[in-house]
Design brief:
The protein has 167 residues and is α+β, with helices and mostly antiparallel strands. The chain contains 4 helices and 5 strands, in the order βββαββααα.
Amino acid sequence: MLARTKSFALVNIKPLLPGHVLVSPRRAAKRLSDLNNAEVTDLFVTVQQVGRMVERYYGASSLNIAIQDGPAAGQSVPHLHTHIIPRQHADLDEQGGGDAIYGMLESDDGDVGRQFWERSNGRPKFPKVDDSSRKPRSEEEMADEAEKLAHEMRQQQLREGSSQSSL
């Protein structure tokens, strides 16, 4: 979807809400504190750019941006990653309100990193949330979304480049 010098973004196999994407450093780092200053800067610039794009593309009015930084914080995969989740007013009212997203983030099906980790190392035991309506997407669905979002990111970068050159 997007690759920068020190970070990359990818679509999620089982998005919690439409547009849920992940941003991760290229170097395998377990915790935010393991990154050097250049990697932290690149990670958060990437989060900002991708967040701006998915918010616009999905017609969201807000974003959840989350890092589960260490096992006690709910991190289930020993590789730092940032969740970006576009939000709309009352989008989780049926699940108990906007804060329901935090329980969803801690579910055992929430991100592609966890899916990969489980395939390689066996499935860990985590409390489940009711996510029977969340079905894994096909490779084609994920590739299609990634292609559309990559196009949107290029368009955004062109707009931002032309607006900065006029300053």
